[in-house]
Amino acid sequence: MNAFKAWRYRLHNQKLIGIDRKGNEYVEDFSRATAARLVYYKGEIGRTAVPHPWRAWLDRQRPDPPTDKELQEDELRALQMQRKVQEFDKKEARLRAEEAAARISEEQKKQQELSGMSRHQMKDAMKQGKVPQPTPTKHDDDIEFEIWKPK
């Protein structure tokens, strides 16, 4: 810690508690009735820039600041979670592609079956449920509004 930082902390009645890998400085400010826990950001600003163990210390969910071992374990957990999310995203994309391919092949089969039918055969197939009935579409102009009246 350089002399300027030491002077700044002493001047404001603060004590440097720790520094994380991103360079954020964590201090306790004793100038208030209850010591305040503060962070001086270096670079990115916000709660996402603070590691979880340090955030817990800032929010007074833990009495002592995190150790280096705890911070390393937290980083390892975060990396493992990122890998799991990437694997999940890949698997989900593959499943969606397979479902889309299956849907397309089913629609192509139906189209091939329907292409050779006459009008009467088509009506019979619709009655039997082999061919989906066309659904009527609603337009915005078709919507009717009712006026609410109390009883």
UniProtKB/TrEMBL annotation:
Classification via Pfam families: NDUFA12 (PF05071)
Cellular component aspect of the GO annotation: mitochondrion; respiratory chain complex I
Annotated Basic and acidic residues bias: 99-112, 137-151
Region of interest (Disordered), residue spans: 99-151
Entries under InterPro entries matching the protein: ComplexI_NDUFA12 (IPR052618), NDUFA12 (IPR007763)
Superkingdom: Eukaryota
GO BP term, pick one: mitochondrial respiratory chain complex I assembly
Record PANTHER family: ADH DEHYDROGENASE [UBIQUINONE] 1 ALPHA SUBCOMPLEX ASSEMBLY FACTOR 2 (PTHR32470), NADH DEHYDROGENASE [UBIQUINONE] 1 ALPHA SUBCOMPLEX ASSEMBLY FACTOR 2 (PTHR32470:SF2)
Family: Belongs to the complex I NDUFA12 subunit family.
Protein name: Uncharacterized protein
Protein's organism: Planoprotostelium fungivorum
High-level lineage: Eukaryota, Amoebozoa, Evosea, Variosea, Cavosteliida
